[in-house]
# Entry
Amino acid sequence: MPFNPANVIARKRDGAALSRAEIADFIDGFTKGSIPDYQMSALAMAIYLRGMSADETALLTEQMLASGVTMQWDGVAACVDKHSTGGIGDKVSLLLAPLLACCGLRVPMISGRGLGPTGGTLDKLESIPGFRTDLSLAEIDEMTNRVGCVITGASTEIAPADRKLYALRDVTATVASIPLITASIMSKKLAEGLDALVLDVKVGSGAFMKTVDAASELARSLVETGTRMGVKTTALLSDMSQPLGKMAGNAIEVDEAVAALAGDTADDLIHLTNTLGAELLVASGIATTIEEGRQRLQQHIESGRGLEKFREMVSAQGGDLDTHRPIAPATVAEATRAGFVSAIDVEALGYEVIHLGGGRRVMSDSIDHSVGIETLVAIGDRVERGQPLARVFASSQNTGRAGAAIASHFTVQDESVSTPPLIIDRISDLP
Ligand code: URA
# Structure
């Protein structure tokens, strides 16, 4: 029977499992334009409502990957990467790419922009004057081989099917589907030609996935798909019930990353960075245990080599770390009562950063890199009335309302609460 897209949509609508040929013909036709957006949107909605088996999800990922190029590396050094599902204050990539490069790995990191309340690695890096996030495939190849790492946006040759499909999902209420998220994330990451991948799946008030169950389901789907496609894949579930590190914004996050690489900053950020990195060192055979992997990465912080490598990457990508990055004037958000910090509405803090101008409401918005929020307390801390909970870096027209609004996102109560664990679970088929 000749291929008919409407039959494929109808079969998925009725809950059937799609075959390799059906998925391949559909994605190929959509990428080339012979299948129109309305049929792809209908299939996306059928997948959203009916789900996909692990087999179908892997086939969809494979076909979206095959819509573009896959990078090739010689066998001298392993090629690795990390992907985060997104959080507030998540600047791990800025530390991890250079630290892994210091260990002799190749890291051609393809990153994204802010999505909803979560910040984007590319937006943060663009606060560095001159930094380019639009590297061509040839530049990614040359710089990764020479420096060891790059952090850039997806070029048009990488998984073009995802670029087209993501734009449709955004306007057809089909973003929050585990098979579609899996195929979207993994097609772009696997196009880097990876040997090993670690996924940081965030859980909590500032994460896409609010519960451990939902995050575990996504993590299992990502790990299973990566493993089926021959990449050593591990996921860590990590806490996003409070911001990671202290800074949430753009220039202030780069400053915090530089301070962390200089050995001077928040323990949670370093611990998560080193644990994610250690997974990749073990998967690549560079370390035999996670603890040994963490120590190797920590040594590159203590010796200053990690910071040197970050500078080398920034300069290869056209940026100048020594040119002043303006930071907006600071005010404080104060506690309105004494007690213990029991919860932080991290998603609301993410939207406050957008409100200050540090993120986008629509894709065409420009970003004010100078604004952001520094969280000064953590869950479990005792605070006094009038004590600063956060420092707010804002332009003058926003300073008035920002302090009180931001303080309202911190819950302070009489009873003490314990600090939530940073790493909640590990999901992998690897030992
Ligand atoms: N990030 C992606 O790249 N794709 C999704 O579908 C969701 C998050």
